[in-house]
TrEMBL record:
<dbReference type="InterPro" id="IPR018095">
    <property type="entry name" value="Thymidylate_kin_CS"/>
</dbReference>
<keyword id="KW-0808">Transferase</keyword>
<protein>
    <recommendedName>
        <fullName>Thymidylate kinase</fullName>
        <ecNumber>2.7.4.9</ecNumber>
    </recommendedName>
</protein>
<dbReference type="InterPro" id="IPR039430">
    <property type="entry name" value="Thymidylate_kin-like_dom"/>
</dbReference>
<comment type="similarity">
    <text>Belongs to the thymidylate kinase family.</text>
</comment>
<keyword id="KW-0547">Nucleotide-binding</keyword>
<dbReference type="Pfam" id="PF02223">
    <property type="entry name" value="Thymidylate_kin"/>
</dbReference>
<keyword id="KW-0545">Nucleotide biosynthesis</keyword>
<keyword id="KW-0067">ATP-binding</keyword>
<dbReference type="InterPro" id="IPR018094">
    <property type="entry name" value="Thymidylate_kinase"/>
</dbReference>
<comment type="function">
    <text>Phosphorylation of dTMP to form dTDP in both de novo and salvage pathways of dTTP synthesis.</text>
</comment>
<feature type="domain" description="Thymidylate kinase-like">
    <location>
        <begin position="19"/>
        <end position="202"/>
    </location>
</feature>
<dbReference type="InterPro" id="IPR027417">
    <property type="entry name" value="P-loop_NTPase"/>
</dbReference>
<dbReference type="GO" id="GO:0004798">
    <property type="term" value="F:dTMP kinase activity"/>
</dbReference>
<feature type="binding site">
    <location>
        <begin position="21"/>
        <end position="28"/>
    </location>
    <ligand>
        <name>ATP</name>
    </ligand>
</feature>
<keyword id="KW-0418">Kinase</keyword>
Length: 231
């Protein structure tokens, strides 16, 4: 279950939410919608992404997504290098000062893309990311489940190096994500990415409000009470 802000077991005073899913799932849209909702109730929000959340990450992103062929193991190591720097210089400091960090992709992406779809072993890629981040896990991972066909249609012909992979690759990625969510269901909110963006956003807000009293304002009182009547 998503920990409350007052939990003595929480490793930081902030909140860490990762948006995961295949290419074209709508992660960027949902992270921006949640940022606006959180800022509207007075929370400091850091919106970031992997790779590319830092200056170093932007350089790594260019190589990984817009460069020439990258060997699978090198690809995994570059993602891990980006993640290590991202967490050390941006994510962890923000969490320590009590901010909400929203990231478009985190370690589940590496496990799904390199560990499963690239067949580099799920456990090896997970362990690499855990080492790179000193074990920092999201408080909540929102998995936007999208089929390869849906993702391709949404991208509208704009494809980076990974997006150009065959549908079989993207289906392997999808299954990798779903397997992860089944292994640790308390940390995941799995949503059908084909739903309306506003509907998905409402589901995310309700999940956060249900487990974090300090975020209860994300859900209007009329929605939070039986019958839709104000309390």
């Amino acid at each position: 279950m998503l920990s409350t802000s007052s939990s003595p077991t929480s490793p930081h005073p902030g909140l860490f939410v990762a948006f995961e899913g295949g290419d074209g799932a709508g992660k960027s849209t949902q992270s921006r919608l949640l940022r606006a909702a959180l800022e509207a109730i007075g929370r400091e929000v850091v919106l970031t992404r992997e790779p590319g959340g830092t200056a170093l990450g932007a350089a790594i992103r260019e190589v990984l997504l817009h460069g020439d062929h990258v060997a699978p193991r090198a690809e995994a190591l570059l993602f891990a290098a980006d993640r290590a720097h991202h967490v050390a210089t941006l994510v962890r400091p923000a969490l320590e000062r009590g901010a909400v960090v929203l990231t478009d992709r985190y370690m589940d992406s590496s496990i799904a893309y390199q560990g499963v779809a690239r067949a580099l072993r799920h456990d090896d890629i997970r362990d690499l990311s855990v080492w790179a981040t000193e074990g920092l896990q999201p408080d909540l991972t929102v998995l936007l489940d999208v089929t390869p066909e849906q993702g391709r249609a949404r991208r509208r012909g704009v494809h980076d190096r990974l997006e150009r992979e065959e549908d079989a690759f993207h289906e392997a990625v999808r299954q990798g994500y779903l397997q992860r969510s089944e292994q640790d269901p308390a940390r995941y909110l799995v949503l059908d990415a084909s739903a309306d963006p506003a509907t998905l956003h409402t589901a995310v807000c309700r999940e956060l409000a249900a487990h974090r009293p300090d975020l209860s304002a994300l859900v209007p009182v009329r929605e939070a009470t039986p019958g839709g009547e104000p309390a």
